[in-house]
Amino acid sequence: MTILAIERLSIAFGGVRAVDNVSVSIDEGLVFSIIGPNGAGKTTLFNLISGLYVPQDGRVRMRGEDVTGLPPEQLARRGLSRTFQNLQIFFRMTALENVMVGCHRHETVGIFPSLLHLPAVGRQNARTRAAAAGALDRVDLSAAADKPAGNLSFGDLKRLEIARALATEPKVLLLDEPAAGCNAVETGELAGIVRGIADDGITVVLVEHDMRLVMRISDRIHVLANGRTLAEGTAAQVRADPAVIEAYLGVHGSQEAARAVG
Amino acid sequence: MLRHTADRIPAVLRRPFVQRLSAIAVIAVIAIVIPAFFPSTYYYRVAALVFVFAIAAIGLNLLMGFAGQVSLGHAGFMGIGAYAVAIGPTHFNIPSWLSFLIGAALSAFVAFIVGRPILRLKGHYLAVATLGFGLLLAIVFVNEARLTGGPDGMLVPRPVLFGWSVRGTETWYWIAAISFVFGAALAANLIDSPTGRALRAIHDSEVAARVLGVDVAKQKLVIFIISAVYASVAGSYLAAFNGHITPDVSGFLRSIELVAMVVLGGIGSIAGSLVGAALLVMLPQVLTFLHDYEQMVLGLVVMGVMIFLRAGIVPSIAAALSRRRA
Questions:
Q1: Which of A248, B29, B163, B215 has the fewest CB atoms lying closer than 10 Å?
Q2: What is the mean pLDDT of residues B307-314?
Q3: Residue A256 sits in the same domain as residue A191
Q4: Across-strand partners of A5?
Q5: Does residue B67 sit within a domain?
Q6: Most confident of the ranges A144-158, B52-66, B132-146, B166-180
Q7: A28 with A138, same domain?
Q8: Chain B interface, Cβ < 8 Å to A
Q9: Residues A20 and A38 in one domain
Q10: B273 lies in a domain?
Q11: Is the residue at B278 inside a domain?
């Protein structure tokens, strides 16, 4: 069943069509990767889906509902969350507090009970803390719970963003280059985490440059180049597609590749 | 579904009520004990002023230190509170306590109206817009002379509460001290709540807060209104305590002074707001022997604090202490 449908989406920045008439249909529970050379429009597409940009043309539908142009906070309430390529961490809070913010949309106490610290606030805080600890556990960061986020390593911060987004209990999770800057061990752990998230029924949309990771964990791959759709299919299909090889390696490179394989 | 692992959370984070308010309890004890060392009522007067300004500073600190939004017009809300307790009883025969509440409600309402458009602005633009708001209110207080007495200001009738006439510097000291402790407790409660976490998140990354479902515009507006009410309450106390009020209460210099209290004491530190208020209220009194050079030395002290204790007095000292312990 399609959970997220992107229909003929377009946006231009000063004449450059960063995303040009792209349509993608994503089935529930998959790891769906979007790949493409630098400047292909992957992150722009993410920003359009997550409400940070408003498309000039086209529609975004979540579970059939038209969500085009909704601000991010309303998309979060409908079950869509994301991480960022260049980290957006709450550096002055601990790792656990970062994740607790992710629970915000499930928190129900109002401003006056909060000011007076009525018992409901204490109960809410305990629930939030437990849920946040669970999300941290899911990305193997429990040991860092009480550390200030500013003291964590780059790889840990990447996973912290995933935990924070998971705490919103999303239906669809957009991961923007989660493996960028991670070493081989961290990337290996990440593969397991992402697969685990998808196995729990959360649809994962992944933008990633690490092709080994993409090929290993993706159920389906969509290839962009110069803002347009180039190809879509399973890992094996995409890998064998001459147009994809050409986009990544250039015409000359694709000839070399063909010779090497043949 | 997320697994529940509450039992694995260290005890530090399960902060009970008492522990969360420990700093405030210390301040309360100091407020109770310190009058024993006051040689004259003059000291009560200065201490009362410190607590009154500290109330306004806490409110501004919630806005600046936790939500990360600057306001250079906060004395405007002090002005609303101050003129409410002056105008209400004088012109409309409204009792002081009710005028006090009307002033707070009016400040909240004004914050709600002006906050929606100006809180969309960021950084310097927000600073200039709030500055304009403060100047605007000061001009209103000067020009509405029929109600406010114009630039000369007006007398503030002595408040009467249930037949008890509030008078005496010592009484005002206790009112200011108790109100401060109450205000500080409310602020500490707020920080340790879903709203508090959302505000701190906004301070570090608005875009991340938004994708996690935080309604950034709403949260900023809520904290702007709360901080306006704090300033209004402080303004009402100041007016009733002094018995006289002029448009200076909402002037630009007053707004800057409030910002300086927050920054000097420590942005994001509730105890810091008290320390900042104490510094800026007491230093001019201590430095009066310098006559013409008083302002200059005050400026130098402020510069010195900012250069050597950049995070503000309380956070810098706390950091130094924890380094020594480690």
A1: B163
A2: 85
A3: yes
A4: A25, A61
A5: yes
A6: B52-66
A7: no
A8: 2-6, 8-10, 12-14, 17, 186, 189-190, 192-198, 200-201, 203-205, 207-216, 222, 226, 268
A9: yes
A10: no
A11: no
pLDDT of residue B26: 84
Alpha-carbon gap, residue A61 to A59, rounded angstroms: 6
In this structure, the answer to whether residues A178 and A68 fall within a common structural domain is yes
Facing A72 at nearest CB: one of B12, B13, B210 = B210
Q: How confident is the model at residue B17 (pLDDT cuts 50, 70, 90)?
A: low
| B190:A115 CB<8 A | yes
- Domain assignment present for residue B324? The answer is no
Q: What domain range includes position A127?
A: 89-168
Same domain for A217 and A231: yes
For residue A122, which residues of chain B lie inside 8 Å, CB to CB?
Answer: 17
- Minimum Cα–Cα distance from A125: chain B residue: B193
Environment class of B281 (CB within 10 Å of its CB; exposed 0-12, middle 13-18, buried 19+)? buried
| Out of B4, B192, B211, closest to residue A82 by CB | B211
- Provide the residue range defining the domain that includes B213: 17-251
Q: Given the DSSP bridges, would you call strands A16-27 and A2-13 parallel, antiparallel or unpaired?
A: antiparallel
pLDDT tens profile A140-173: 999 998 999 989 988 899 999 999 999 999 999 9
CATH, residue A35? 3.40.50.300
String of DSSP letters for A158-182: HHHHHHHHHHT--SEEEEESTTTT-
Residue A84 forms part of a structural domain: no
A13 and A72 part of one domain: yes
Q: How far does the CA of residue B90 sit from the closest CA of chain A (Å)?
A: 32
Domain count, chain A: 2
Q: Which residue of A has its CA nearest to B10?
A: A146
Tell me whether residues B196 and A114 touch, CB distance under 8 A: yes
Average pLDDT over residues B177-181: 94
Cβ distance A111 to B12 less than 8 Å, yes or no, reads no
Burial-class residue A259 by CB neighbours within 10 Å (0-12, 13-18, 19+): exposed
Over residues B235-251, mean pLDDT: 90
Q: How many domains does chain B have?
A: 1
Residue B11, pLDDT above cutoff 60: no
pLDDT of A261: 58
Is pLDDT of A131 > 50? yes
Domain boundary among A168, A192, A211: A168
Asked if residue A64 is part of any domain, the answer here is yes
Same domain as A176, residue A53: yes
Cα gap B294→B299, rounded to integer Å: 9
Rounded to whole angstroms, how far apart are CA atoms B150 and B138?
10
Q: What is the pLDDT of residue B170?
A: 85
What is the pTM assigned to this prediction? 0.88
Looking at the complex, does the CB of residue A81 fall below 8 Å from at least one CB of chain B?
yes
Quote the minimal CA–CA distance from A123 to chain B in Å. 11
Residues contacting A15, CB < 8 A, separation 6+? none
Helix H segments across B34-74? 41-61
